[in-house]
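pasting input
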Amino acid sequence: MTGQLNLDAAFAALADPTRRAILARLAKGEATVMELAEPFDMTQPAISQHLKVLEQAGLVARRVDGARRPRRLAKTGIEAMDQWLAMLREALERNYDRLDAVLAGMQDPKTPEGEKR
Amino acid sequence: MSKLKMEVEGDTHIVITRRFAALPEAVYRAHTDPALIQKWLLGPEGWTMPVCISEAHAGGKFRYEWSNGQGRSFHITGEYLELEPFHRIVHVERMFLPDRTPDNQVDTRFEPDGVGTLMTIRMTLPDAQTRAAMLATGMEHGMEASYARLETMI
């Protein structure tokens, strides 16, 4: 482990909606496989398979607590989620920057709506 | 300079605020008139909205379809619940990615702010789990741009 975010593995892991939902759930706190499986209407082996991909991508880590193996977001997982959020924000910003230009065109006082040809 | 503010509120809300240097009437029209919506509601570079249907009256439906011109596309459908020109829009929407996401109820207000407009979008998701998944899923669209950036960096 280099501690570096492996972008290829991380993006591949994030390409699946169930895995994104698992990360979103873990962003709220650690959870066991059983707790993760419950809201998804999926079997525990299916969830375990997704967790394996997330762990190999360095996004999720596990802790030993007696017989429990609760999963949590790894530091790189948190960084990946932050990066996701930044990208969503950027897409929104781009939309609204474009809207600024559309509004400027609509409001040009020299060409009121009624006088446009 | 970041004029956009995006926050989570309680367990199920997302609140977005943004100021515009235009009157509420213009900002409202840019959110309801299909010809105007198609000019700006596009997401990352390279995406267009080939289909934009917006029946801007209570009970009216809307449908937005996006495409990146390279085989990737997705769409949103919704219904207008309440329209108060040029002050407020309440609608419900869901994404098809291609699976249908849970309904998102959206209350958008346009308030006079000096010579401009303060827009406040308040989204209500069915539960905390859905909100978290939506924040993650919404970013799929943004990923296109980052892949493109990665390609130019390599």
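fyi The first helix of chain A runs from residue 7 to 14.
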